[in-house]
Design a protein that fits this description.
With 366 residues, the protein is an alpha+beta fold. The chain has eleven helices and eight strands.
């Protein structure tokens, strides 16, 4: 009998050690749920409600992996767009600018040359449209294709591109092109903090400057808040089962039975290029690094996944057919809490040890 009590104890350590007020974690193998556990509270405020499996979490940058990148993939798979298409193919104002030469693939793989972050709310811009215009012209820190730099800016630009070309909001595109075709309960955006009822509560995030209480149901990321709660970088909220419904679809696609993508197409966008040196990124999802991976020691080199700043993560090991999902609000009440980091790998190691996968992952690079 699998000892999932070990995982339960790790989650209790997260809460008792103040690494996060609450946490939900689950494991799926062969497409079936093996375990799903919830521990802790919605916030660090005394007397707040307990977390349940139905608690809604700010998924943060998981939005990039399960919304923005797949929406681009759909257009590439259909032939409407190509990974080699350049930004100046879509935005004529970038003709002759270094940003115009950035390709969709470079944006997806975080090799665009854009810096990691910008602050749209601090720009001298007339609302979101003006901020997006300035974002496209953000000075590059590296020549496109030369250096890996995880960049929110690149995904803000991708989200803006999707909205500009479709003349629809990213939340509308996600609903019509991903959620509705699946016919399943999946995460959703909360424009201006408004979304479906959350009867089991919403996990709080940080207390922004000038606020008296943590955010509940309003997106943590400042840029996405400035944009009204919807962006290519973050904005999705979901329960662990809603997130699982999405990730299980990517698994079905890999198995050749999914609705959104062919296996052949996923093989292409989930491939890791060794250039730039030491790269771990695919065209939208990450893979385990050789040292210090949050996926732990046992998720294989065939694993793909992503992290969220708020304390969320997803990993799918295609070799063992294991999916691990973690939702937490480690940023509550403050982003500067350093305690959660080591628990990411510990949770994944515990899951794989309980399942019996204990062969250490070899290095990808010599």
């Amino acid at each position: 009998m699998s000892d999932w009590g070990r995982l339960e104890r790790v989650l209790e350590e997260v809460v008792s050690g103040a690494a996060a007020p609450g946490i939900v974690a689950g494991c799926w193998q062969g497409g079936e749920c093996r375990v799903s556990l919830a521990r802790g509270f919605l916030s660090s405020e005394q007397g707040d409600r307990k977390v349940t499996l139905g608690t809604l979490y700010d998924l943060a940058s998981l939005t990039k992996a399960v919304c923005t990148a797949p929406l681009v993939w759909l257009r590439v798979q259909s032939g409407e767009w190509g990974l080699a298409d350049r930004l100046d193919d879509f935005f004529p104002e970038l003709k002759g600018e270094p940003q115009g030469a950035i390709t969709l693939e470079q944006l997806l793989r975080h090799t665009s040359g854009y810096p990691a972050i910008i602050r749209m709310d601090q720009m001298d811009a007339n609302g979101p449209e003006g901020a997006y215009h300035l974002a496209k012209f953000t000075p590059l820190e590296n020549e496109p294709g030369r250096v890996v730099c995880y960049s929110d800016v690149g995904y803000l630009v991708l989200g803006h591109l999707l909205e500009t070309e479709s003349r629809k909001g990213l939340d509308e595109l996600f609903q019509s092109e991903i959620a509705e075709p699946l016919g399943a309960d999946v995460p959703s955006f909360r424009p201006n903090g408004v979304g479906p009822a959350a009867t089991n509560g919403i996990a709080a995030t940080s207390v922004p400057e000038g606020f008296l209480r943590p955010l509940y149901g309003v997106v943590e990321d400042e840029n996405t808040r400035f944009l009204g709660g919807v962006s290519g970088s973050s904005g999705l909220f979901g329960t662990i089962d809603q997130l699982a419904n999405l990730v299980l679809e990517f698994r079905r696609c890999w198995m050749g039975t999914g609705r959104l993508f062919s296996r052949q197409f996923l093989e292409s966008v989930w491939a890791v290029s060794p250039d730039p040196t030491g790269n771990t990124w695919t065209a939208g999802w990450d893979t385990p690094s050789d040292t210090g991976s949050t996926a732990g020691r046992y998720f294989s080199l065939e694993s793909v996944g992503h992290l969220g700043f708020t304390g969320t993560s997803l990993w799918y090991d295609r070799r063992s057919d294991v999916i691990a999902l973690v939702l937490s609000n480690r940023v509550c009440p403050t982003r500067s809490n350093p305690r959660f980091g080591p628990f990411r790998a510990k949770i994944h190691d515990t899951i794989m040890e309980v399942l019996g996968y204990t062969d250490p992952r070899p290095r990808r690079y010599p």
